[in-house]
Amino acid sequence: MKAVVLAGGKGTRLAPYTNILPKPLLPIGEMPILEVLIHQMKLACVEDVILTVGHMASLLQAFFQDGDKFGVNISYSYEEEPLGTAGPLSLIDNLNETFMATNGDVLTTLPFCSVIDFHHEQGAIATIAMHQRQVKINLGVIECDESSVVQDYIEKPTIDYQVSMGIYVFEPEVLNYIPTGDYLDFPDLVKKLVADGRKVCGYPFDGYWQDLGNPEDYHQANLDFPILKHEIFHGEK
Fold first, then answer.
1. Separation of alpha carbons 234 and 232, rounded Å
2. Are 153 and 140 in contact (CB under 8 A)?
3. What is the 3-state secondary structure (H, E, C) of the chain?
4. Largest CA-CA distance found in the chain, in angstroms, rounded
5. What is the mean pLDDT of residues 158-183?
């Protein structure tokens, strides 16, 4: 099985760390976050990993090389200019079977094989790993109809919602919805698929997930990693 890892972003929210390192090379414990992801992919029987690279591509290639020391085959797809999150898939050849696509900066205990199995069971063209989050609103929320007549008044509500974990499983047909070399993000790709009547599923996961999008989340992930390490690498708590 193949996996595509989006590793070409500049990671501006994590500056100044990303002024000298691409975000996927930022350390979690004693290894880069992308090395953790590659190990998890190997556990899910992924043999070929394609890194989509742009920003500081030479550093990523120098560290991961051909993937031999990690037990997988690693190749590189270069973006001359940013193509969003989904756009880079259009530049990759031979994605002719079910494949994974992930962000290169996610720390999670999600067993990737469970998402892949779910995807096949559902017969979906795309499956998105999801995590539940909450937003607490510390104000009274007023709901009105079109005539500004109050219908409800909710004091300090808590809203539950599902968010994308940045981990996807796709069938190769999704490539038909991604124009070659054009900018396209995953939300827009999903909207295209849904509008065309294609089956897109969400895989709910209530275990650990942290997106390393800002310094606070990155710091928290480093605190959590020693506790999670065994579960991540062995699939056991």
1. 6
2. yes
3. CEEEEECCCCCHHHCCHHHCCCHHHCEECCEEHHHHHHHHHHHCCCCEEEEEECCCHHHHHHHHCCCHHHCCEEEEEECCCCCCCCHHHHHCCCCCCCEEEEECCEEECCCHHHHHHHHHHHCCCEEEEEEEEEEECCCEEEEECCCCCEEEEEECCEEEEEEEEEEEEECHHHHHHCCCCCCCCHHHHHHHHHHCCCCEEEEECCCCEEECCCHHHHHHHHHHHHHHHHHHHHCCC
4. 66
5. 95
Kindly report, residue by residue over 106-123, the tens digit of the pLDDT.
999 999 999 999 999 999
Residue 11's pLDDT is what? Answer: 56
Gap between the Cα atoms of 2 and 168, Å rounded:
12
Q: Residue 131 pLDDT more than 80?
A: yes
Rounded-to-integer distance, Cα 8 and Cα 85, Å = 9
d(CA 168, CA 4): 10
Which residues are registered as beta bridge partners of 169? 100, 127
Burial code of 142-171, b = ≥16 C-beta within 10 A, e = fewer? eeeeeeeeeeeeeeeeeeeeeebbbbbbbb
pLDDT of residue 19: 63
- Taking the C-alpha atoms of residue 226 and residue 85, their distance in angstroms, rounded to an integer, is 30
**Cα–chain center distance at 205:** 13
Q: What is the pLDDT of residues 51-76, one digit of tens each?
A: 999 878 899 999 999 999 999 999 99
